[in-house]
Amino acid sequence: MSEKETLGMTEQTSAKKELSAAEKAKKKKAKYNLVKVIVALCVVLCIVLTVFELSVTYRTIKAAEVDGTEYSVAEYNWLYTNSVYEIYNNYYSTYGQMAMYFFNPQGNLSEQVYNSETGETWADYVKDFTDKTIVEMTKLYDEGKKAGYELDEEYIEIIEAEWDAMKEAAATYGYSANEYVELNYGRGVNEKVFKEMYERYYYAFSYSENVAENEEVSASDIDAYYNEHSENFDSVSYKSYFVSGTADEGEDEKAAMDEARAEAEAVLSGTEKVEFTESNYYVKSSISKTYVDWLFDEARVAGDKEIFETESGYYVVEFVELNDLHYNTVDVRHVLVTPEDTADDAAWQDALAAAEKYEAEWKELGGSEENFAEIAAKYSVDGSAANGGLYENVFKGQMVAEFEDWCFDSARKAGDSEIIRTQYGYHLMYFSGVAEEYYSYVIDSAVRNERLNAYIDGITEGVEVAELFGNKFVGKHFA
């Protein structure tokens, strides 16, 4: 049927022929039908806009383009979510559950202030972090493909394990795997997107490791780097106690400082007993300038004490030891079990019971390191779970005191296991063995990392994220 027939219009044999009454009526009806068609199209358009948020749409519409590579809303959502988890885990590794006070991924990121001076929110910060990540990931991926680099099979296995964990969690909460992954990673993310983005992400990461590993770093390179950056490696253990000299309302400031000085002297002499704060393996660059030179003076011996004045009071500092860089790091596995509420004794008891249960299950499997890795992958709540709970080349000052006291016990031997408690929860520990010398390992790593960063800066120079139409729909699951 022709367009004219559709609108009720007839062929005219003469341009001058007048329309009959019937033809005029037909034309009027045609106009009415046209209006109905337009209204119907508007309704259809509204429906299209309504269903725009359907998952399939988010896998089609593009959110960003980086140097010729386009990413859909779903793909960008995956990376955005991964950024949120990475940022939070970085805070959690330092502050434990207190990290929620800095950054709460369960809240609306647009309402959480990251920088009060600039007004930047956590949503802004995560977006910038994601943009930087996607640029680096894209360029490393491209460079790796050009070099013919192939992803190790172990990463494919890790991705499958991640998906299996997602399926297991989904079943626990009564969702299908795709429903659950979409709830966690945002609209449009399904199994295909999840696995493909993980593979791209791991490929870029693995290729960067390959670049760093292929760098030739000699002993002289290590010594030269140390000599130039020794303040980032030399460390000291000490104790300190601070006496505030801040005046109360109506109190004379000099009198307040004099009183604080007298108390500091009493602490120094030992006539006033107080509890010092222990600072173990603090590198020189991180210590207060008020007393750093005193601590690193070659004349220092264990037990030396001194008072140091600041604008607001006095520090009493006790030297413990200058740490030797030439010791062996260790490899250790653990299963971390955190209490639901660290202020609740019953929650701590539940966490301990769970740790003991996992220990029993490990022994029932055979009690080997491989069995322990299975248990860690299944139960541990920290990031090492993906690697069987393994921390390699652990050095002094890296972990909390209780963790390190166990690892670096002089009697420790391969195969040892025990449940210990730290501020983060209970750790089912497994000692894998002695690893590389700290000095060579940590400085070699620093040299490689510096060169890798220079390489990444080179391949990403001038490359930016071009935001496409779908970018406005990214990260809404954190709003």
Characteristic terms for this protein:
four-stranded antiparallel β-sheet; alpha+beta; 13 strands; 17% strand; 15 helices; 479 residues; Chitinase A, domain 3
Describe it for me?
The protein has 479 residues and is α+β, with helices and mostly antiparallel strands. It folds into 4 domains: 27-58; 62-214, no CATH class; 235-322, Chitinase A, domain 3; 328-440, Chitinase A, domain 3. The protein is built from 15 helices and 13 strands. It has helices at residues 3-6, 21-50, 55-58, 73-95, 122-146, 153-172, 177-185, 191-213, 219-229, 253-269, 292-295, 345-365, 369-379, 401-407, 438-460; strands at 62-66, 69-72, 113-115, 120-121, 235-244, 277-283, 305-310, 313-322, 328-337, 390-394, 417-422, 425-437, 466-467. A 4-stranded antiparallel β-sheet has the order 6-5-8-7. Strands 10-9-12-11 form a 4-stranded antiparallel β-sheet. It is globular, with a radius of gyration of 32 Å. The two termini are 50 Å apart. The relative contact order is 0.12. Residues 1-52 have low confidence and may be disordered.
SSE topology:
Elements: H1 3-6, H2 21-50, H3 55-58, E1 62-66, E2 69-72, H4 73-95, E3 113-115, E4 120-121, H5 122-146, H6 153-172, H7 177-185, H8 191-213, H9 219-229, E5 235-244, H10 253-269, E6 277-283, H11 292-295, E7 305-310, E8 313-322, E9 328-337, H12 345-365, H13 369-379, E10 390-394, H14 401-407, E11 417-422, E12 425-437, H15 438-460, E13 466-467
Antiparallel strand pairs: 1-2, 1-13, 3-4, 5-6, 5-8, 7-8, 9-10, 9-12, 11-12
Helix pairs in contact: 4-5, 5-8, 6-7, 6-8, 8-15, 9-15, 12-13
